[in-house]
Amino acid sequence: MDAVILDCLATGNRLRRVSTLDAIGAGPRLVLGILKSMGYDTALIPCNEVKKKASLIRRATYVLVSGMSTDLGSMERVRKFWVGKSSVAGGPSFVDYDHLLRMGYDYVVIGEAELPLPLLMERLDEDGNASSVPNVAWLSEEGPVRNPGPPYVTEPHLWRFTPDTEAVRSYPGWWGARVYVEVVRGCSNFYRPTLRLADGRRCVFCDICRTGPLGKRGFCPINIPPGCGYCSVPALFGPARSRPLRAIVDEVHELLNMGVRRVVLSAPDILDYGRDWLVKPEPLTDPRNPPPNLDALEALLSSVTDHPRVRDGEAYVLVENIKPNLVNEEVAKLLGKYLRGTPAHIGLETGDEEHHRALGRPSTVSEVIRAVKLLKEAGLIPYVYIIHGLPGENERTVRNTINAVEQVRRAGAEHITLYRFTPLKGTAFEGFPRPPPAVKSVARPLYETVRRLNKEANAGYVGKVVKVVGVSKLGNVTVSYMLPHGPVVRVKGGRPEELVGSAFFVRVTGVIKERVLEGVPINRGRDIGMS
Q1: 373 contacts 413 by C-beta, under 8 angstroms
Q2: How far is CA 387 from the centre of its chain?
């Protein structure tokens, strides 16, 4: 074995995930595709499988590990599974390259892998010295060194590699997972937050990032990173760039042919797809103009859903993030035409208009509420995100967020997800402390409101018949994922060994806890084959 890739994304300080258990990301599969295209014999191992696959890791010449800043704990723990191997870290965790190098990694790939990784591997094969590769960090005798390189990859290099599809079989329960297929890299929101930052800097209101020429919006006179203050995407991965249609369709259809039941078109905002083509050669650094490229979106959605398993209701294509300010009636109808009955995720973050803008958000609170209403009317299932503990939060912002949450619920939001603010390196808000849990802060009334609304939504499932896919066995219970998306359902009755890997219908009999239901099978579906 030449190389193994360890997927530690979303594992935190453990060797397993505690949330988003059903997600298979696009990044590690892309790295696998790069290495395979170079002729390496390689394999992908999820972090929770490293103990089982320890012997395979020890036999490999190279070990590559993907993670986020929040996964540094697990990235350190997996180090014990190999000794004397050349090791490379990457993914969003690259912002902590100095930490990763001191923890024992030999190299860290800075930013996107398409340019530095092939050069890095070639140098390692040639003479074992990759200290001159652009966009790579390494540890010299004097300390960590970060080699300069382009801030982000541009065409034709950007989309020259194909993510590996067979790699999804490496993940337990892959047949029921949400498999992400990248359609947009980067984000169009280059606004800056106007709140005073932890180091005292504050927006000077030059307005370059909001009204300046597109090519100039990456510049800030006081070096505030672009985008919402809590988000690292535009700073780390650049402006929105759309992947060619043919490459997306081929990957989606390959996954569907394999037996994948849920494919997610991955993008910081699906409505950015094709917008960059409208402003070429300038970068897409404006989150509001031009409006969505409806022709490009129609071509994308019509092509990826044109598959027998999707048409027959055996598999589903989903999207996630949507900028509410880009949603209008035309957009909602187009999404509803191809994605009816699937979820759409919208960020509210705070329901206070002043706070909303001060965070660097490209939308207004009223646009969020309107987007939820339009998407619901078009047949989609809106999910709304909010964040507590953000810089600038106070009793007023909490009151206004509670009011906005009630409104989005009345407008048709199926579920409200409440996150705790996490200061990420590379963001405008990186210097702020992590806040206490919502129940121990000014946000407690918001927490209680969200809990009540979600409890009401969960209770609405009781008595209904839903379609699920069995993914694992827990004693005499079959753990199942709702199709196309929804709460986890623990199914009692039937034979778990038969239900796992099969799609079937369940009558919901109760609520165990938030996002976890219980039910009984009412008939068997067709086995999809798990080999």
Answers
A1: no
A2: 16
Three-state SS at 112: coil
* Cβ contact 220:192 at 8 Å: yes
Report d(CA 467, CA 481) in Å as an integer.
9
Q: What is the CATH number of the domain that holds 436?
A: 3.80.30.20
Distance (Å, rounded) from C-alpha 405 to C-alpha 399? 10
Whether a cis peptide bond, with omega within 30° of 0, leads into 487 is no
Side chain identity, residue 267: A
**In sequence order, which residues have a C-beta less than 8 Å from that of residue 25 and are 6 or more positions away?**
7, 9, 180, 266
Distance CA 58, CA 60 (A): 6
Domain residues for 372?
177-458
Q: Where a domain ends, among 458, 477, 498?
A: 458
Does residue 265 belong to any structural domain of this protein? yes
Largest Cα–Cα separation, the chain: 66
Pairing mode of beta strands 477-482, 516-523 = unpaired
Question: 530 or 179: which carries more pLDDT confidence?
Answer: 179
Across all residues in the chain, what is the average pLDDT? 95
Q: What is the C-alpha to C-alpha distance for residues 363 and 229, in angstroms, rounded to an integer?
A: 14
Please provide the DSSP assignment of 42-95 as one string.
EEEEEGGGTTTTHHHHHH-SEEEEE--GGGHHHHHHGGGG-SS-EEEEESGGGG
Residues 423, 485: one domain?
no
3-state secondary structure of 459: helix
Helix axes 395-411, 365-377, angle to 10 degrees: 20
Helix 116-126 vs helix 27-37: crossing angle, to nearest 10:
50
Q: Same structural domain for residues 103 and 250?
A: no
The answer to whether the CB of 507 falls within 8 A of the CB of 522 is: yes
Using H for helix, E for strand and C for coil, what is the string for 460-487? Answer: CCCCCEEEEEEEEEECCEEEEEECCCCC
Across the range 106-120, mean pLDDT stands at: 96
Q: What is the H or E stretch that residue 296 is in?
A: helix 294-304
pTM of the model: 0.94
**What pLDDT, on the 0 to 100 scale, is given for residue 531?**
31
Q: Which run of H or E residues covers position 337?
A: helix 329-339
15 pLDDT exceeds 50? yes
